[in-house]
Specification:
Layout: H1 3-37, E1 40-46, E2 61-67, E3 85-87, E4 102-104, E5 113-120, E6 134-141, E7 153-166, E8 170-173, E9 187-197, H2 199-211, E10 214-219, E11 234-236, H3 237-241
Antiparallel strand pairs: 1-2, 3-4, 5-9, 6-7, 6-10, 7-9, 7-11, 8-9
Length: 243
């Protein structure tokens, strides 16, 4: 073996030793990082803004992985945790889902039952009525087909009705008629709203949805009075004419 060949062999050996050293260094660094970071676990991130008190669905969240040591013990690890839950505050896009961001959906009390009706979005719902809110339910009736002495009137059907759930905007066909359709034709939007009511109040709401010209909701303050004062449960235009 001549001098040139010996130099080549030496260079190859040195290159191999350097490669081994570099690999060992990478292994040590990776091992150190893994020791400091730890294993990765599943978490969930909010895909888009979710309003407070809205019912939660698994499709509103995306699965991510991150080091377990960086994840708080309060983080949601499984989407089964959102079933039957509502948001307790506004959830912002990109936020990591935490257990204290969600709560149980309002439950029925003894003697109550769920009833859902479609409320025309143009009557003032406008996203302000949420699960857990209290509302007064009003119905307006015209005087057609209700007898000789019938007059157009507005009635307070249920005072202080408790809202269990507010659904998504749904197109409705005005040409089909019904209490929410009004007198025009064409497509409008309505919101399905679920209430917790006694049997008597549920019957009043069902009657109003079927026969009233319009059903409207009035949002009450959290500490507001729900019972109407004497004479406030019914209104006709003649009452103002007589004043």
């Amino acid at each position: 073996m001549n001098a040139r060949q010996r130099r080549g062999v030496i260079l190859l050996v040195l290159s191999a030793l350097c490669a081994i050293g570099a690999f060992a260094g990478v292994v040590v660094i990776v091992g150190d990082v893994q020791a400091k970071v730890g294993p990765e676990v599943t978490a969930y991130r909010v895909k888009a803004d979710v309003p407070a008190y809205a019912a939660l669905q698994p499709g509103q969240f995306e699965k991510i992985t991150m080091p377990e040591r960086w994840l708080s013990a309060n983080a949601v690890r499984s989407l089964s945790a959102v079933h039957g839950k509502i948001a307790v505050s506004d959830l912002k896009k990109g936020s990591l889902l935490q257990k204290d961001m969600i709560a149980d959906r309002p439950a029925l009390a003894s003697g109550e039952q769920e009833i859902a009706i479609m409320i025309d979005a143009s009557t003032g719902v406008a996203g302000k009525i949420t699960a857990g809110a209290r509302v007064n339910i009003f119905a307006t009736f015209d005087d057609e087909g209700r007898g000789r002495n019938a007059v157009a009137e507005s009635r307070l059907i249920v005072a202080g009705a408790r809202v269990l759930d507010v659904g998504r905007l749904t197109p409705i066909d005005q040409a089909r008629g019904g209490s929410q359709s009004g007198s025009g034709t064409g497509a409008r939007e309505a919101v399905p709203i679920t209430f917790a009511l006694t049997t008597a109040d549920a019957q009043r709401v069902a009657y109003a949805e079927s026969f009233a010209e319009h059903v409207r909701l009035a949002l009450l303050p959290k500490d507001g009075q729900t019972a109407p004062k004497p004479g406030e449960s019914r209104y006709t235009l003649d009452e103002d004419k007589d004043k």
